[in-house]
Amino acid sequence: MAHTLQLPDLPSWHELQTLAEGMRGTSVSALFNREVQRAGDFTASAAGLTLDYSRQLLCRDSRAALLRLAEQAQLPRCARQLFSGVALNNTEARPALHTLLRARTAPAGLETEFSRVEDTRHRMRLWCERITSGELRGFSGQAIRDVVNIGIGGSDLGPRLVTAALPAWQGPIRCHYVANVDPADLQNTLQQVQPETTLFILCSKSFRTQETLANGEAAQHWLRTAGAGDEDWSRHFLAITSDLDAAAAFGIPADNCLPLWDWVGGRFSLWSAVGLSIAIAIGWDGFNALLAGAEAMDRHFLEADSAQNLPILMSLLEVWYCNFFQAANHVVLPYDQGLERLPDYLQQLTMESNGKRVSRDGETLGYDTAPVLWGAAGTMGQHSFYQLLHQGTRLCPADLILPLTTTTGEAAQHRLLVANGLAQSRALMIGRSQDEALASLQERGMEESAARQLAPHLVIPGSRPHSVITLDALTPHTLGALLALYEHRTFCSSQLWGVNAFDQWGVELGKDIGQSILRRLDHPEADKTLDPASERLIAEWFRAQAAARTTTG
Ligand code: F6P
């Protein structure tokens, strides 16, 4: 069997272990004293984004060793393979060509796929314009005013994030997102819209996803209850899918279906027709600017030297903390309300891609892969979990994302947000020593023995490693670049870890078991063949159903 080179097989592995050991006793402030040009030297820019990684526990020597690791893992070659359509998704024997969705010209050998992308882009544009111009009418003749995207995972998170992130680009049509199979999700949205003026987009690459089909059927029922006839309801539906037959079987006319291809992974799909709700919300020009920003990051990823290459640098930092400092998590702190959902989006992107335990050829890995990703928009996180970041015992490497101006027009208040972001970054780095804590308490008039007792509680170790990603403003272009940056970082890390970033077998078992549980819930008289823990919970469910019937009856 083929043997994928594993991370510890790379020549730099042992050197990095020694360097990481040396780093443990030092502080970021000491690194700044030692490396005079550090603030500028540990900064790289591309596509409107600047990555400042000077506040990382990384010196010039360790950076050089990490860059050697990137070379040994042949990251630039892997990038070229990704873009050229090599079947990197080896367990499903297919390429991962999301970069083609934002390409401006056909890469050699991918002309057929590119012409399909262009045709679909053209059809997306027509739909977008029909809807935003008011030309598209519902069953009572009124123009469509609301669009509800029904999808989950990659068919939801990206479009939902981008739509919320760009309020200044918001056009006349309101886009809503429904994902959860919990009927409350759809109900909450339906309460805000009218049947005559609402268009549903059933967004599902497979068109087999239980949540999406159940919500789609419920939406269809809602339209019919409001008076839409057999001919009517289907014009309130579009489908985005790679299974056009399944969409037809659902009752959606062929003209209302836009295709997706097996070489677009769900979590990489917002650039495809899956992004139709984005285009409707922010307009066709806005959607194109999003693609252009992503494409600018693609070119940077392909062309820039590793030492200046944002995705490669961020991936090396991820591996540095994960594998040499045993950091089990990574926190994302966007200082922008519009990016509130970025952690949710990145959770799927990074953990569904790299939450793997075997190499590409199926060998068990002897090291950790994707860290747990979490986060929240600043400043809300500051009043919640930052206490742990500053004084807790866990290592939480962070990305702080900071647009420097606002597009909402409230510049004076936005200044406060920027000041908070900069302050937190500085506090994470410099911390506060025991002596400083003592002095500040005494300055405030506290008597010495009381101050000595309290001071240890005020000590903040500092040197909490983080990068700051700045952008002049959050626009469709910079947002496209930011999301492509994280896509490529995820890909680079998968290559360093030797895993397939493009499959997700781990989520299938739960779906299969879900089907058998459902059959069991529908047949109370069936034999109890499941494990005792599951049977106990099922019995509890039957009891609660009976109790609810008694109460309502
Ligand atoms: O459950 C995981 C998953 O397969 C994701 O990878 C995907 O984004 C999501 O479900 C939705 O899948 P689909 O677009 O096929 O409905």
Short description:
The chain is of the alpha/beta class and 553 residues long. It has helices at 12-24, 28-34, 38-41, 60-72, 75-84, 111-132, 157-165, 183-190, 210-225, 230-233, 244-250, 276-282, 284-303, 310-324, 342-354, 386-391, 411-430, 434-443, 448-458, 476-497, 508-522, 532-552; strands at residues 43-46, 49-52, 146-150, 174-178, 198-203, 237-241, 257-259, 329-334, 372-375, 398-405, 466-473. Among the domains are: 98-285, Glucose-6-phosphate isomerase like protein, domain 1 (Rossmann fold), CATH 3.40.50.10490; 508-552.
Give a verbal description of the structure:
Helix 13 (284-303) packs parallel to helix 20 and helix 14 (310-324) packs across helix 20. The protein has helices at residues 12-24, 28-34, 38-41, 60-72, 75-84, 111-132, 157-165, 183-190, 210-225, 230-233, 244-250, 276-282, 284-303, 310-324, 342-354, 386-391, 411-430, 434-443, 448-458, 476-497, 508-522, 532-552, and strands at residues 43-46, 49-52, 146-150, 174-178, 198-203, 237-241, 257-259, 329-334, 372-375, 398-405, 466-473. The chain is globular and about 80 Å long. Strands 1-2-11-10-8-9 form a six-stranded mixed beta sheet, with helices on both faces. A five-stranded parallel beta sheet has the order 4-3-5-6-7, sandwiched between helices. With 553 residues, the chain is of the alpha/beta class. Among the domains are: 98-285, Glucose-6-phosphate isomerase like protein, domain 1 (Rossmann fold, 3-Layer(aba) Sandwich), CATH 3.40.50; 508-552. Bound molecules: 6-O-phosphono-beta-D-fructofuranose (F6P).
